Protein: DUF7745 domain-containing protein
Amino acid sequence: MCITGMSEQWVVARIKQKGDSKCIPWKNLRDLILAHPDVKKRVDIFSLSIYGLVIFPKALGHVDEAISDLFDRLDKGVTPVPTILAETFRSLNVCQRTGEGRFIGCAQLLLVWFYSHF
Structure:
């Protein structure tokens, strides 16, 4: 609600259950980007969409609710590095446990973190 500037009813009506996560469809966010009266909110929603669809993709065409919480914290100056590492570890762990699958996360961000720490 804070990021979109929309009412709680608007947000609740659009949240969908995808697997074990609650997500909002990209289509709804796209519509907000195109029609929101506040330009700053448009940019925030666009950034949230990119972050959710590219950096932490969980459900195709949807942005995870947890990403919107993380994004809201970023606006308050909280660093995303622990979250990126935790999400990377979770994804790699799932791939190893099942013996198949693919890494879900942003390999480029992980590479940047490795280069800056080792």
